[in-house]
Amino acid sequence: MYNSGISGGGFALVRLPNNTYEMVDFRERAPGSASENMFVNNKNASQVGGRAIAVPGQLRGLNHILKRYGRLSWQTVIQPAIEVADSGFIFGHDMEWMVNWTLKNAPLLNPAQPNLFVQDPAWQPDFAPNGKLLKRGDIMTRKRYAEALRNISRNGAEDFYTGSTAKTMLRAIKNHGGNMTERDLMGYFVVHRRTRQVQYRNYTLTSTVAPSSGTVLLNILEVLNNYDDFFTNTSTRDLSTHRMVEAIKFGYAYRNSFGDPAFVPNITNLESTMLSQARIQKIYRNIDDNSVHTNVSFYDPDHKWTPESFGTSHMVTADKDGLTFSLTTTTNLPFGSHVMVPETGITSLLPTPLTHSAILLIRTISSNPENALCPLSHQIATRDDGSFVFATGAAGGSHIPTTTLQTLIHALDEHLSPSLSLGRPRLHHQLFPNYIEIPDTYNNATVESLRKRKHEIKKVDEWSYAQAIFRSEQGQFIAAAEPRQLESGAFAV
């Protein structure tokens, strides 16, 4: 609800049983009236309110995926969500934390109503049905949303884009200052994109392309593939960590030049260059085992600040035939733009792609809402014989590529189980700002070795979340969910 919803968008990396791959792009798009200077005089309007809202792709995307790859009916897959919304669910730790974070950190949708969840008449029936904000352990119901899902179940996904559900949504957006039109909703379409692959150790790794960050992750892995003693044992741990961080910094430098292929020219050529052996070997040669490069310009970045999203959810799934999905959806910010449709309870109407200033990154492209690179990165690994072995992905905005990278390293280099791979402490570096984010649980000796190599360290709490599935050579599935999520991570086999 806070990181994902039917008014969101996302990507899916799909492996078919014949070992071919497809990327399904159903991410949100800016409405036709959007422009690169639309938020110059009001930055908060890029995060909350009607002007911030993008054209959602989630329902058309999920409907497309079901028709193309699925076996169940539309009504069958929606029914469990209807039942949960109608009968209720526990208002748990994760929901409580996200509500409190939103009240503390997010701009106010209405300054006269500082507590969105209690004072806004659209939100109050769900979050404060008795006039007081629900607390941990209470049962939360979403009756209006259940009825909206019944309507979408009966009439199909198109009701969200052209039917009564669309009309109520457009009315709510207009009432909050937005100008999305029927044409914007009707004109949304799902895009199929090609994928990219690299060889890493004894595996073939497949990922998504721009406007996702998959190629950035593949670039980092290609560089690290040059090290034969990479995380082979405890004696190589400190040096391997340094090498990994340096490869990440080079990868994030290139990431700043990316954007949507529909609006940013030559992205395909840039991706090819990033994965060329000439570029990989150049990066490899420029990594100094004894020290960082103190001048950040050595990593060859471009310099322009741009915003980043972090309201994301991820799932992976695989079946006995080898059909595998790594799928990420996003609302770009927790609870999206903070606009809820009063008649339907549909929320998470998401901000226009990466135009908000919640988290700062650097990018060379202009601030046009359509020129945005999403941080979403998916990975599916297969053995030499083409059989599926591992799938993973993550949620957490700019931390997604580094989280996915470390999960892969734990699984493929250190041969850890999915649960151990997800449970290991994670670091993060994105070049700007130029320091490593490391949790207190990280190995102290490794942290000191990084300091000796002149890395700047900042101690932080971890807030990225990943999921993973492994399949043994005997065909046994082993799945794991993010252990840092107390209630909102789950797995089933």
Question: What would you note in describing this structure?
Answer:
The protein is of the alpha+beta class and 493 residues long. The protein has a domain of 342 residues: Glutamine Phosphoribosylpyrophosphate, subunit 1, domain 1 (4-Layer Sandwich). It contains 16 helices and 17 strands. The strands form five sheets. A six-stranded antiparallel sheet has the order 6-7-12-13-16-17. Strand 16 and strand 17 form a beta hairpin. Helix 2 packs antiparallel against helix 6. The longest helix has 19 residues.
Outline:
The chain is of the alpha+beta class and 493 residues long. It is built from 16 helices and 17 strands. The chain has a domain at 1-37 and 189-493: Glutamine Phosphoribosylpyrophosphate, subunit 1, domain 1.
Question: Tags for this entry?
Answer:
493 residues, alpha+beta, Glutamine Phosphoribosylpyrophosphate, subunit 1, domain 1, 6-stranded antiparallel β-sheet, 16 helices, 17 strands, globular, GGT_ssub_C, Ntn_hydrolases_N
Radius of gyration: 22 Å
- Describe the main β-sheet briefly: 6 strands, antiparallel
Oligomerization category of the chains in this entry: single chain
Question: Remind me, CATH topology of the domain at 1-37 and 189-493?
Answer: Glutamine Phosphoribosylpyrophosphate, subunit 1, domain 1
Q: Tell the overall outline.
A: globular
Tally the helices: what do you get?
16
Widest beta sheet: strand line-up:
6-7-12-13-16-17
Structural class: alpha+beta
Report strand %.
15-25%
Percent range of helical residues:
25-40%
Count of beta strands:
17
Mean pLDDT score: 89
**Uncertain segments of ≥5 residues (pLDDT<50)?**
304-308, 354-371
Compute the separation of the termini in Å: 24 Å
User: Tell me, what is the CATH class of the domain at 1-37 and 189-493?
Assistant: Alpha Beta
Question: Based on the structure given, which CATH architecture of the domain at 1-37 and 189-493 is correct?
Answer: 4-Layer Sandwich
Q: CATH superfamily of the domain at 1-37 and 189-493, called what?
A: Gamma-glutamyltranspeptidase, small (S) subunit
Active site: 312 (nucleophile)
InterPro entries: GGT_lsub (IPR043138), GGT_peptidase (IPR000101), GGT_ssub_C (IPR043137), Ntn_hydrolases_N (IPR029055)
Protein name: Gamma-glutamyltranspeptidase
GO molecular function, one term: glutathione hydrolase activity
